[in-house]
User: Fold these one by one.
Assistant:
Number 1:
Amino acid sequence: MGRRGVKEYRAPEALQLILADRDRQDLVCPSCGSEDIIRTPKRRVRKVRWEADRQVTLHCTKCGRHAAYVPKAVTQPSEVELGSV
Ligand SMILES: [Zn+2]
């Protein structure tokens, strides 16, 4: 029980969400379009140093999809051509 509700994003969707978060843009679920994304840990506006080695999880409360990444490990530029995956 419980675990069945957790779905992974497809890779291009996860990448899109991860890059949006890394660039501190508004988070919109690439799968269902919801803006109700729970980010863990929460962004701290006053925090000067980005916690680059802590895992960030992004969870859409609407469709239940889930992505996780470590900011330090994401080296791709923002202009990613998702169609080439
Ligand atoms: Zn969603």
Number 2:
Amino acid sequence: MTAPKHTPTAREQTFLDGVENLRYDRQTVNGLSPFQDENAPADILGFYSKEELEELSALKGTRRDVEQRMPVKMTRHYFELAQGSTAIQRLVKASADETENLEGSEDPGHQMDYSPLEGLLHKYEMGLMYVISTCSAHCRFCYREELISGRDVERQDGTVARKGLAQISEVTHYIRTHNALVASNGGRHPETGREKLREILLSGGDPMVLSNLKLAAWLGALAEAGVEAIRIGTKELAFFPERIDATFLAMLDSFHETYPHVSMRFMVHFNHPDEFLAKDDQGHYIEEGSGALKWMPKAGAAMDGLVSRGWLSVENQSPIIKGINDSADALRVMQRALKRVGANNHYFFCGRDIVAHKAFNVPIETAWQILNDSQKGLSGVESHARLSITHYKGKTEVVAVTNEPLAGVPGTEHGVVIFKLIRSAADAPERGQVCIVARNPDAIWFDGYADRIIYDEAGLFDYMRLPNARAAAEVS
Ligand code: SF4
């Protein structure tokens, strides 16, 4: 697709002219070599033991090279948090264990099936854009590891290439064209049946690594293209909370003044309360009265800066990862503490079937049990989060795990798992359809249930990749 060059409107240009850009010093340590060559700052050097470094070095250049799978990166702020928390350490610290089993998909969820142009995934009524391919630090369990490590990914047409980044001119041209066709066809795209593309998620990588001006350029261009809501997906409140500073907040305020009709949602990513709650000398969270737990100053200021702007919402979402936050107690503390300051608990996720996922994912039924236990004793508003697992068809909720047999239904002696399609990537009317399978406590992905399907209205186990696979099936 050839898109016309993007030229800012007068309104957009006035907004951009008022943006202040600062440079940030995250004191990032990139890769394992600063540890191996002893170039890292003296106090950070001990983050890896000699034995750990030897073990990781021995894997270099082999199929099990951990840096090939996912580049190692950490900010000083996160290193300091890690001093008092094994969960935080595990989140950023490379381990030889993670490449012991390299099973998994290079393109989890066959995302490329939904990529009409480079850097854009068009799913649901929402588009997701890769606007950058790195974050301030890198989570070892990241499900965008192929983007961050720059690996080749196979497209549905069989071609193989790195995932590219979205470009303003192409994306805004695509949105305008799609939405015009939808409007002229009674609210549905004439070929795909999709609705208006009304919401865009800036993702990557972490968009907050971009400068204020680059972020503002995306916001202004998307608003001018008719997008109704913009999301920013970020883990910066954990990795480098100072990024949410006065210049960034002033840019947001100016955007809201210029485009008051465009709503904004911050999809933040806290995995564990150790990322934002202060601790005393014994390692206990500090009570401030009325049951409130004290936030660390930098994370607290960043969160305050966002939630104090009543026109935007803050939503936390986090996978449940082995050895990091597979703890009902940690998740309970986190959900209470976030809601208390005005952030919503949006989703918890089962880990995706990325390459090496067996090192990180907890079984689906265990994840459900942990989240369910964590929500015992929470109020209704504190426990809004659902457990989601992303199927190729769309976002799916793990609704319930039962312990009793279904009377008269063979195979259900140990109970069932109920999945519900909450967002179908292709067709909104499929929402709400369910799938029931007999339990398998070891299943960490859907294929663990392939031999025990009881009822599959949602078609989770009868699925062909879209749209070429369907077209081919129809011809044959
Ligand atoms: S913040 Fe998100 S995109 Fe970045 S490394 Fe972590 S999981 Fe991946």
